[in-house]
Structure formats: structure tokens, C-alpha cells
């Protein structure tokens, strides 16, 4: 289809209230949204017992293209690179 546009990639931020690293990650993602198009979805892990069990000690956790890309901190250059590469988000090398 000529001229078809793709929806922006989804970035999921797993977070919780009172988490200063989560607040920093959210602010950084808002700044990065000025450089690249993506849909940000925030998920409070404390509203879901399974998510709380899985990510309790790791928030913030950031998924790009449905794959875990970062935890604790975001490397802006790596974020933009991973955002552009849906097949390879480098899930084996998290920013810590």
C-alpha cells in the first residue's frame, strides 16, 4: 500500500508511586519524545500482583517493541537506537 503509515512504536514504563528513579525515567522519556515518535504507556506494578512479583525490585523497567530494554536507568542513545530496531532491542544488555 503506497503512503501507508505505521503507528508509532509502543514504549511501556513499569513504575510505582514514590519511586524517584521511575520519576526520572518518565521525565527522560518525555524529553526523548521530542526526538522520536513513540506511544508511552505507564503501568503501575502495584496494581497487579503478578507484575509486582516480577518487577518489585527492578522498577523502573522499560519495554520497547514488547521486549525488556532497560531497568533502573535509560541510556538516551541506546533508547533511540532500540526504538528504530524492532527486531533487536538488545534485551540481553540492560542499562543498570
How would the blueprint of this fold be written?
Blueprint: E1 10-15, H1 20-32, E2 39-44, H2 49-55, E3 61-64, E4 67-71, H3 76-84
Parallel strand pairs: 1-2
Antiparallel strand pairs: 1-3, 3-4
Please describe what this structure looks like:
This protein has 96 residues and is an alpha+beta fold. The chain has one domain: Glutaredoxin. The protein contains three helices and four strands. It has a four-stranded mixed β-sheet, with helices on one face. A hairpin with a 2-residue loop joins strand 3 and strand 4. The C terminus is likely disordered.
- Amount of helix: 25-40%
Q: In terms of per-residue confidence, which ranges show pLDDT below 50 for 5 or more consecutive residues?
A: 88-96
> What is the number of beta strands?
4
Query: Overall pLDDT, averaged?
Result: 88
What is the distance, rounded to the nearest whole angstrom, between the alpha carbons of the first and last residues? 41 Å
The count of domains is: 1
The CATH architecture would be: 3-Layer(aba) Sandwich
Salient structural properties:
single chain; 96 residues; alpha+beta
Task: Give me a quick take on this structure.
This protein has helices at 20-32, 49-55, 76-84, and strands spanning 10-15, 39-44, 61-64, 67-71.
Amino acid at each position: 500500500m503506497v503512503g501507508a503509515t505505521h503507528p508509532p512504536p509502543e514504549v511501556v514504563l513499569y513504575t510505582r508511586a514514590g519511586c524517584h528513579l521511575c520519576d526520572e525515567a518518565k521525565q527522560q522519556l518525555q524529553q526523548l519524545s521530542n526526538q522520536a515518535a513513540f506511544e508511552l504507556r505507564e503501568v503501575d506494578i502495584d496494581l497487579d500482583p503478578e507484575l509486582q512479583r516480577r518487577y518489585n525490585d527492578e522498577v523502573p523497567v522499560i519495554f520497547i517493541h514488547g521486549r525488556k530494554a532497560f531497568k533502573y536507568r535509560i541510556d538516551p542513545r541506546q533508547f533511540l537506537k532500540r526504538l528504530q530496531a524492532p527486531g533487536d532491542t538488545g534485551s540481553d544488555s540492560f542499562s543498570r
